[in-house]
Amino acid sequence: MPEPIDLLFSTPGMSSAFSSEAHVRGMLAFEAALARAEARAGIIPQEAATIIAANCRVELFDVAALYREAAIAGTPAIPLVRMLIAQVGGDAQKFVHRGATSQDAIDTALMLQMRDGLDLLLEDLLGICAACATLAEQYRHTLMAGRTLLQQALPITFGLKAARWLALIVRQVRALREHRERTLAVQLGGAAGTLASLGDNGLRVIELLAEELDLPAPDLPWHTERDRVAEIAGTLGVVAGAMAKVARDVALLAQTEVGEASEGAAPGKGVSSAMPQKHNPVDATGAIASARLAIGEVPVILSAMAQEHERAAGEWQAEWMALPNLFRFTASAVERVRGALGGLQVDPTRMSANLDLTGGLIMAESLTMALAPHVGRPEAQRIVKALCDRAISSGIHLRQSALEDVQVPTLLSLEEIDKALDPGEYLGSSDTFIEIALASYRVVQSSMGGSG
User: Fold this and answer.
1) Are 188 and 209 in contact (CB under 8 A)?
2) What φ, ψ does residue 151 adopt, rounded to 5°?
């Protein structure tokens, strides 16, 4: 049962995937698959494997009692194996957990949980991609101010901003999919990573176990070599950071003084307890908070890579809390961004008004580039800087400042000046960039067989 706080910093699906019940279910899946693999390898009787697998059902176990015992035993696998042996009974019980160690069961269960968690993240990320693609298409030609260091810089389109979000999320989809296919792996090494108790059958059992669980087989057991877990954790940190970037943009666009976009309204959403006029960006805020929490778990996992010899004394155990939290918090950030973008209300009129806010100063670079062929770039910059200073001090439009200048009208025609000051004429490769992002999304969408 998820904790109430999970409603703020997780999702129901991810809370379920990383619940204690799910971890026990994963360990039981390992035990059942191990028995079947060893039966296929001729190590244990097929009848014993069938009996063991039939008893590897989480509903047959008292999960709460198991974890109470785990606090004393040191790992949840020790009481689980004891309970499973009692559940199996008869001659088959002597074949339970044959050749394995506690970490084999725990790590493999973690891999199964991570696979489910990656699937959930990929599904929601594709949903964000679909929302971004729609925004990029719909607002391809909607002019707005591009901002650097929170100040107006050059004109862009809102379609380009959405396309950049899209490209960012597509890269995360590709990274997570690669980890799902290549980085996950079963764990089976026995007491010290040699599988000595399985004699010459160790490698064969690993291969069969991997087949049973539909997970990749590792090159070697990896009890204290945690690069697999760390790589996925690092990538989740990047995913969370990507969510925070998009959410931050949404929150800034929703500022009263900007007002270019806002989250969709819903009963009770975004209200203030004191100020009735407010419509707060609650999804963006939630995404930023969740992303910060997620990123905070990554150093725990990376620092836990320094593990002693063949079994860790504390570092591995730290993963048990940090990794589930990382998945929960990342899922929350992703879901919140999906909510923010799915109902995003865009205000092109406000974008246009803000673009005109500086009286044409946003086109200073464009005017400089128009003058440069005639006087060289350094002199063009000096001229336009003087024009901007005059426009600011006199409170006039940059166009008027240019037309009143003694030099500019002799270098550029009226049509050339107007073109240089037209935001729609200074968008560079924006449209091409949008197409690139959309094409990249279509490739990912097609390869994953879904529409997001």
Assistant:
1) yes
2) -115, 150
Angle at 188 between CA 214 and CA 84, to 5 degrees: 85
pLDDT of residue 451: 44
- 144 DSSP β-pair partners: 156
Query: Between these two residues, 329 and 2, which has the higher pLDDT value?
Result: 329
Residue 418's CB is within 10 A of a number of other CB atoms, namely: 14
Cross-strand bridge partners of residue 155: 145
Kindly give, in sequence order, each residue whose CB lies less than 8 Å from that of residue 277, ignoring residues fewer than 6 positions away: none
Name the band, by pLDDT with cuts 50, 70 and 90, for residue 1.
low
Report the pLDDT value the prediction gives residue 265, as an integer from 0 to 100: 63
393 is catalytic: no
Q: Which of 171, 174, 311, 382 is catalytic?
A: 311
Q: Is-contact 221 272, C-beta < 8 A?
A: no
Q: Tell me how long the chain is.
A: 452
Q: Which helix (H) or strand (E) holds 153?
A: strand 151-157
| C-alpha to C-alpha distance for 147 and 358, rounded to whole angstroms | 13
Cite the DSSP H helix spans in 179-226: 202-213
Contact in structure between 146 and 164 (CB atoms under 8 Å): no
* Sign of the dihedral through C-alpha 107, 109, 112, 113: negative
The single residue of 272, 429, 446, 447 carrying the catalytic annotation is 272
Determine the number of helices (DSSP H) and then strands (DSSP E) in the chain: 19, 4
Phi, psi of 15 (to 5 degrees): -60, -40
The rounded radius of gyration (Å) of the Cα atoms in the chain is 29
Q: Identify whether 447 is a catalytic site residue.
A: no
